[in-house]
Amino acid sequence: MINRRKLGTLIAVLLAVGLLSASAAPGSASSTLILDKFDEKKTTEITAHTPNEAPSGSVWFVELGIWEVRMGKAREQSTAPATPSSDYRALIDAGTADVSAEVKLKTDPNSDQFWGVVVRHSGPEDWIMAFHDGVGDLILGKKRPDENRFGVTVSTSDLTAGGFQELDRVPMNWNTGKKGRTHTITLQISGDTITVLADGDPVISAADDDSMTSGIVGIFSRGTGKNQFDKFTVKMNESGGGPLSSPLTVPDPEEEEDGKSKRGKKDKDD
């Protein structure tokens, strides 16, 4: 007959296996909604390009800019705008507001381009973005249409010109070296919880206190250069915990047995 300690260990292991299986099931936190490797052989406008995976009826559309894909790369090809704050975004509907959106990009060390990922986009003045500023910082911010969105007056100290609100920034010196390097920015959002990852490591946590609900996501560029978007991935994010959650700890059977032996010996000695 299995003792209670072994039974507890077995239950913990089964729970861990069950949770891992659930994470791979449809509708779970790991469900892929959009996958795009930009694998057109010939140069194609992104609006005429079909992602590898996407919800039925979801197609790329361009808010601003000249977006092209070719040979596993997506590029924004506009010349420098007259207004430096012009944002170029290519967008697609993920079908849900709670997502983990990730962009993988090969940097050009001579570029001054901003680049990143956008979620909960419902217009040029309404979105959340995580982006690299092309110099040395990774920034999380959002934009709202006005200072009285949803009837709530926003303090002007929270806003910069144009209604942009910076939620946080961290140093990220990615524009170094003679050759371009590949980096990823992941923007996870569930409810009002936001987590930003840089190359897989969580670096920013914040909150969306505006309760934006749009399922539109996409990629972002501003400035001139030769940055190349390698891949765009969007997964369902139902848990909201992301990598900042505490992992499930499963007891080690050998440690349990060692502990039992030591306790048993102590009990006997006593």
Order of helices and strands: HEEEEEEEEEEEEEEEEH
Which percent range fits the helix content?
A: 10-25%
Low-confidence stretches: 9-29, 147-161, 240-270
> What class do helices, strands and sheet pairing give?
mainly beta
Give the helix tally.
2
Spatial separation of the terminal alpha carbons:
27 Å
Strand content: 35-45%
Gross geometry = globular
Output the radius of gyration: 23 Å
Mean pLDDT: 76
| Major sheet: arrangement of strands | 3-6-15-8-9-10-11
Short description:
The protein has 2 helices and 16 strands. By secondary structure, it is mainly beta.
Structure in words:
This protein has 270 residues and is mainly beta. The protein has a single domain (23-265), classed as Jelly Rolls (Sandwich). The protein is built from two helices and 16 strands. The chain has helices at residues 4-24, 253-269; strands at residues 32-36, 44-45, 61-62, 67-70, 73-76, 88-93, 99-106, 114-123, 126-132, 137-143, 164-171, 182-190, 193-198, 201-207, 216-222, 228-236. A seven-stranded antiparallel β-sheet has the order 3-6-15-8-9-10-11, with no helix packed on it. A six-stranded antiparallel β-sheet has the order 1-16-7-12-13-14, with no helix packed on it. Strands 2-4-5 form a three-stranded antiparallel β-sheet, with no helix packed on it. 33% of the residues are buried. Residues 9-29, 147-161 and 240-270 have low confidence and may be disordered.
